[in-house]
Design a protein that fits this description.
CATH class: Alpha Beta
Distance between the termini: 46 Å
Number of helices: 10
CATH superfamily: Vaccinia Virus protein VP39
Number of strands: 7
Strand order of the largest sheet: 3-2-1-4-5-7-6
Helix content: 25-40%
Radius of gyration: 18 Å
Shape: globular
Low-confidence stretches: none
Order of helices and strands: HHEHEHEEHEHHHEHEH
Number of domains: 1
Length: about 250
């Protein structure tokens, strides 16, 4: 399956109007809050797998924004919502950027689509400057409610999810790429229904409350197993800190 116009119109991105207060809107707002909290204003920020450009567009006033995606159609659409962002067609596994040029990199729900995600994470270690921030998210194989969904779990529904891994593997990759983990958390239980018969609307309110509250207040507090995605914020180690960790 290719990441073409059809893909963007049949998945999360189908809300191309970017309707205010949609789940897509709140998600991007949350990532924007994290970027501003852990990144320095004016730094270069790159979003990898930028889709239709809405997150990069939100951050244009704070950072010097760059966006990379393999989909030329999506990059064209991005021009209207992120007019000041430098757009680049590129694969996460082979990024056309110099070493240590970014102060912040956001890569949300991309690594699970890659045949060699370890290459992408090594690239993140290369392009992020010492002291820079990495914000990454991917489906959570350790979600507490995943067994309730079985084969219908959201992470299994996208055929392009070819690299689903346990959280420990992702965390090890990030550490091995030269990062120190600052926050490891989750996004809540939004893959309703979890219980047969009970109305989905009611389940969304009950199961999704904590994740929704986290997104609204912009403070990551949900434990790693309490959601359908594992999310993490990491800091690129300086040479001195690397040496100290090796001692």
């Amino acid at each position: 399956m290719s990441f073409d116009e059809k893909y963007f119109n049949t998945h999360t991105y189908r809300d191309v109007s970017f309707a205010r207060y949609s789940q897509y809107w709140w998600s991007n707002r949350f990532y924007a809050i994290l970027a501003r909290r852990y990144g320095k204003p004016g730094a270069r920020l790159l979003e990898i797998g930028s889709g239709l450009g809405h997150l990069a567009g939100q951050l244009e006033g704070t950072f010097e924004t760059y966006a990379a995606d393999i989909n030329h159609w999506a990059l064209v659409q991005s021009k209207s919502v992120a007019p000041r962002t430098s757009l680049q067609a590129a694969s996460a596994e082979e990024l056309p950027f110099a070493e240590g040029v970014f102060g912040v990199v956001i890569i949300k729900h991309v690594v699970e689509h890659l045949p060699h995600p370890e290459k992408a994470i090594a690239e993140l270690g290369r392009i992020i400057a010492p002291g820079g921030a990495l914000i990454l998210a991917t489906p959570n194989l350790s979600s507490l409610l995943k067994p309730w969904k079985g084969k219908k779990w959201i992470g299994y529904q996208d055929p392009t999810h070819i690299s689903l891994k346990p959280p420990a593997e992702w965390l090890d990759m990030i550490r091995n790429a030269g990062f120190s983990l600052l926050k490891v958390f989750s996004d809540g239980f939004w893959d309703v229904p979890y219980i047969p018969v009970v109305p989905k609307v009611l389940q969304k309110l009950v199961f999704g409350f904590l994740g929704g509250f986290q997104a609204i207040v912009g403070l990551p507090f949900l434990p790693m197993h309490w959601g359908e995605s594992i999310m993490m914020v990491a800091r690129k180690l300086t040479t001195e800190k690397k040496l100290n960790e090796l001692k």
